[in-house]
Design a protein that fits this description.
Layout: H1 3-12, H2 14-20, H3 22-36, E1 44-48, H4 54-63, E2 67-72, H5 75-84, E3 89-92, E4 104-110, H6 119-128, E5 130-141, H7 147-151, H8 162-169, E6 173-180, E7 183-187, H9 190-199, H10 211-225, E8 231-235, E9 237-244
Parallel strand pairs: 1-2, 1-4, 2-3, 4-5
Antiparallel strand pairs: 5-9, 6-9, 7-8
Amino acid sequence: MNKTLISSRFNKSFITYDKQAVIQFKTAQKMIFELKKQNREFATIFEIGAGTGILTGLIYNELKPEYLYVNDICENSKVVIESRFAVTKFIQGDIESAEVPGQCSLIISNAVFQWLDDLPKLFEKLSNSLTNDGIFAFSTFGVRNYNEVRYFGYGLDSYIEIAVMTEYLQPFFDVISISESIETMWFNSSGDVFKHISATGVNGISQPVSFAAMKAMLKEYEKKFSLNEKIPLTYHPQIFIVRKKKCP
């Protein structure tokens, strides 16, 4: 995973992200709703991949932690988050190598883990940073995400089946709940689809494509997937809420 490129794209999308990240916001809301079912307070929360603060705002308003540590790989995130929220500390960097605060009652992340390389190793690291009854909640995207774009051979190939993700979690966590859904966004043209993808900091096409090839692909996209003169883009959000395993 080229994280330098990923960071660069997300830095460029900060102005447009919130308007376009409809599914990400909806998923964050669902995750907070599920967490509130636990009927407990989370005094110290660590958020991974805060971005523009979509989830950060929900954490502040709904969970009201005493201490909130926030992480993101992007420089723009630090500027935005610290201007909007009185966070305890902003930890900039790749979460796979960055420091993680200890004794967290909740570690939470929204739409980030599809960008990471070694999830089992990270899950062990996060488990060690939780209190004995600490909760780990995160959302990511499943294998049907961006089906239409991936039909043409573009997009991420790092989406993971729920069964595989559960296997990665199992040594360190007990499952509280897992949920998934298929969400479809509709656009006026295939060109609008790719503008939307770009505006959320994701480029479905990582390798150079000629103008002629892109034009042909956009035409084929509309021919194959259009319905009632609208063009779809599929999202496959998944939410995992787990609890740190108790020591034997």
